[in-house]
Amino acid sequence: MSTGVKSNAVPSAGQHVDGPRLLGEIGDTNARFALETGPGEIFQVQEYPCADYPGIAEVIRKYLKDMQIGRVNHGAIAIANPLDDDRISMTNPDWTFSIEATRRALGFGTLLVVNDFTALAMALPGLTDSQRVQVGGGARRPNSVIGLLNPGTGLGVGGLIPAADRWIALDSEGGHTTFAPADEREDLVLQYARNKWSHVSFERVSAGSGIEVIYRALAARDKKCVTFDTSDVVKRALDGEPLAAESVEVFCSILGTFAGNIAVTLGSLGGIYIGGGVVPRLGEFLERSSFRERFEAKGRFESYLKNVPTYVITAEYPALLGVSAILAEQLSNRAGGNSTAVFERIRQMRDALTSAERRVADLALNHPRSIINDPIIDIARKAEVGTSTVIRFCRSLGWPRLSDLKLKLATGLTGTIPVSHSQVHPGDMATDFGAKVLDNTISAILQLREHLNFEHVERAIELLNGARRIEFYGLGNSNVIVQDAHYKFFRFGIPTIAYGDPYMQAASAALLGVGDVIVAVSRSGCAPELLRVLDVAMQAGAQVIAITSSNTPLAKRATVALGKDHIEIRESQLSMISRILHLVMIDILAVGVAIRRAVPGEDVAEAIARLRGSADDDVTAALDWLSHGAAGAATGSRKKSVLQNGVKQDVGLERAWPTHRAP
Questions:
Q1: CATH class of 129-314
Q2: CB of 524 within 8 A of CB of 498?
Q3: pLDDT at 213
């Protein structure tokens, strides 16, 4: 039997230009992985016990090491788990992980994690006649809805809906619809099941365990005592044991009724497919049973269902075929064709290019992210050519500007927002320089996400959450950032203040000590007056979080350094991008502190609202005024009058009026 997956075959010549892709399927016990070297070319299937590995990243690394694969750009994994967001918590195995963090840890450009039932559904359109067995008549109608049943531990139900040139997976809980018997034997099954459950769904009698329920119901009818493990009913039926064979026959009939229900509900003119671990074992037993007869038995709609084919999935690893299809869809560039089109175009035209242009072509094929992320001068340096050659290469392939090539490569690799760096020129119109500013900012944010050290972020959040007092220091343009940070953090009930004047920074830092934290924001990270102030505070025991460029004196001095180098629009001499990135970093830290201070069952927005309190505008204004130190020279009576103007007494002077404490 052909499965479409070659466990240890030798790859053919038709390979993905972006390298082999990792495909995986993680169940309760084992993790299965394979490499896809080209469309439909899946090889090197290996299984690993989940219990032997602490997490998903470790088992993937083990597989890649065993396969002697140094680099994979794209991967897709199916897991037997619901998926709500980036954070995945599995029960079996007991793994908790972030999809994005795992992608970064493995160095993948793309990592998709999908539900295993969705993966199975997405495999259906690509199944060949050797990967499925048709039961009964009917002919599938192209580009029509497909239905899927998966009798296993439960009864999975879903479908595929055609939409233009793609498929949309439909998840449902159809297995929990109420079971309706169609003959006297099924009446007995329902009566038996009602003694166990208040609601008898189709899943109770059509999933794998349903065969046992049916067997026990028929045994009770015959007043027979069940003395064996009923999980072995299918084997006994195939061996010819009469009661077991009758039980499997009833199971097939019920399944046929349910499959017909799904077909008319979804309008599945593309066919009904049945997977799972139970039905494929039945083989010709299913074909001899009344499955198809009951499938078509829908009264006035019998002729409708006669034209709907039913298939049993026989492919050995259908979930791998499904994640392959999902990954290919994710990588496709809807605006310009297949995701690999840009790579194929470069490869096909390479021999027609000059020798210098071929070096740029090789860089694009082997290191596409260098083309995407780097400015033209760095691209030229890496390709060992001049910048004019880079432009000629783009024009030779039909793209007038480097930004066009960046766009094609970025969408081809990720299917998401492109990243690029474009210089603003004096003659640019608003439509040009506006797009360039936005593209540069988007690019910088995506690079920050790609390269930010989140272990450092966690450490910074720990320091801030446990701080006795937080002070934000910034000079020049960075003063705007620290004022914004102060506005966010003092509302968490933490004594905070922001200083943009070096003399005030020096005076305040001299009073800090153990338990106090300074957040220093600087684009250059080299201001000597700021560095001197931080040295004084750190010698007294204060901690410093630096938001700055890497490898600067500030980054090297700090307790924790956060940031990523980026490219400014040099002609403007404005730190536009760094300001945005620094504001983003402040937001990340603020959300982190809010999460740490959230109570069980509270989301981040609720935590922030609770920590800020329900103060009205007068309270907020008073707290803001006091925390900014505007009343620093005021008398005690002045403070009291301000508080009485709107601040409730239970706010407390210690919270509303953060004071310095000597170390």
A1: alpha beta
A2: no
A3: 92
282 Rama sector, left if φ>0, alpha if ψ -120 to 50, beta otherwise: alpha
CA atoms within 13 A on the CB side of 352: 9
Question: 366: Cβ–Cβ under 8 A, 6 or more apart, which residues?
Answer: none
Domain regions of the chain by residue span: 5-114, 129-314, 341-420, 451-611, 614-656
**91 CA to centre of own chain:** 18
What count of other Cβ atoms lies within 10 Å of the Cβ of residue 109? 17
- Measure CA 145 to chain center: 27
The contacts of residue 300 (CB under 8 Å, 6+ apart) are none
What size, in residues, is the chain? 663
More confident call, 339 vs 409? 409
State the DSSP H helix or E strand holding residue 79, giving kind and residue range, or none if neither.
strand 74-79
Residue 326 is encoded by which pair of tokens?
A: 């999902």
Closest CA to 23 of 329, 332, 333, 322: 322
DSSP for 453-465, written as a single string:
-HHHHHHHHHHHH
DSSP class of residue 52? G
Q: Locate 646 and state its tokens.
A: 């709107």
**For residues 310 and 250, what is the distance between their CA atoms, to the nearest angstrom?**
18
| Spatial distance between the Cα atoms of 112 and 328, rounded to a whole number of angstroms | 11
Beta-carbon neighbour count of residue 144 at 10 Å?
A: 16
> 3-class SS at 314?
coil
Q: Is 513 left (phi over 0), alpha (psi -120 to 50) or beta?
A: beta
Residue 595, judged by CB atoms within 10 A of its CB (0-12, 13-18, 19+), counts as: middle
In CATH terms, the fold of domain 451-611 is: Rossmann fold (3.40.50)
Q: What is the pLDDT of residues 552-589, one digit of tens each?
A: 899 999 999 997 655 444 444 345 778 888 999 999 99
With b for 16 or more beta-carbon neighbours within 10 A and e for fewer, the 622-648 pattern comes to bbeebbbbeeeeeeeeebeebbeebbe
Pairing of strands 96-98, 469-474: unpaired
Work out the widest C-alpha separation in the chain, in whole angstroms: 98
Distance CA 146, CA 167 (A): 10
For 590, half-sphere exposure in the C-beta direction (CA atoms, 13 angstrom radius) is: 23
| DSSP states along 187-231 | HHHHHHHHTT-SS-BHHHHHSTTHHHHHHHHHHHHTTPPP-S-GG
For the domain covering 5-114, report its CATH number.
3.30.420.40
How many helices and strands (H and E) does the chain possess?
A: 30, 19
Rg of the chain in Å (alpha carbons)? 32
CA distance 503 to 110: 49
pTM exceeds 0.70 for this model: no
For residues 582 and 521, what is the distance between their CA atoms, to the nearest angstrom?
Answer: 7
Query: Could you tell me which of 107, 106, 54, 113 has the C-alpha nearest to residue 83?
Result: 113
User: How far apart, in Å, are the Cα atoms of 422 and each of 372, 376, 608, 652?
Assistant: 11, 9, 38, 52
CATH 3.20.20.140 fits 341-420, yes or no: no
Per-residue pLDDT reduced to its tens digit, 346-378 = 776 777 788 899 999 888 888 887 787 778 888
